[in-house]
Amino acid sequence: MSAGVIYILTNPSFPDYVKIGYADNIDTRLRQLNRSECIPFAFRVYATYEVDSRLSDKKIHAIIDKLNRIIPNVDEVQAEETAQEIDTESIERASNFSFSKCQIPVGEFIEYYGDPTILAEVVDDRNVRYNEQTMSLTALAKMLSGKRYSVAGPRFFKYKGEWLNDIRRRLGV
């Protein structure tokens, strides 16, 4: 019985690179890596190598240095199914946030993570009002955070003490 796997992952977002590491459970590791909304495509298993004991990064790199070639031992059908599931999860995460799907009614207030005194009122399914200005959640998050790049609005706000992304996950929307 193996203790885990050394994995080699690819990602179309980074075509010139592979990710190599160790995991007790490759499916759990894939979900961790693909949780980010910052990468457009999911990581996919290229190859795994079962090992009998837990490995440190130093040990993994020592083993890799000895390899002449990589022999994939992951069933292609299973690997593709896993990649498709991860892609689906990624698409769902990237879908537009909806207050109604998260059971947050119009007229309720959400609070900004950086300052709980900063409140925005929900005005419709996708927009809030802040300082007499109506805008998307993402636009408000970007404005309040001062970030120059696009941000995921739900990551910056709470409703009744719960992060909007956590509400979304809890309700499966």
Number of strands: 9
State the domain count: 2
Shape descriptor reads elongated
- The low-confidence parts are 88-93
- Which structural class do the helices and strands define? alpha+beta
How big a fraction of the residues is strand? Answer: 25-35%
State the order of secondary-structure elements, H for helix, E for strand.
EEHEHHEEEEHEEH
Strands side by side in the biggest sheet? 7-6-5-4-8-9
Structural Rg: 21 Å
Largest sheet: 6 strands, antiparallel
Distance between the termini: 37 Å
Oligomer: single chain
Helix content: 25-40%
SSE arrangement:
Elements: E1 4-10, E2 19-23, H1 26-33, E3 44-51, H2 57-66, H3 76-94, E4 109-112, E5 115-122, E6 127-130, E7 133-136, H4 137-145, E8 157-159, E9 162-163, H5 164-171
Antiparallel strand pairs: 1-2, 1-3, 4-5, 4-8, 5-6, 6-7, 8-9
Describe this structure as you would to a colleague.
- The protein folds into 2 domains: 4-94, no CATH class; 109-171, no CATH class.
- It has 5 helices and 9 strands; from the N terminus they run ββαβααββββαββα.
- The protein has helices spanning 26-33, 57-66, 76-94, 137-145, 164-171, and strands at residues 4-10, 19-23, 44-51, 109-112, 115-122, 127-130, 133-136, 157-159, 162-163.
- A hairpin with a 2-residue loop joins strand 4 and strand 5.
- It is elongated, with a radius of gyration of 21 Å.
- It starts with a strand and ends with a helix.
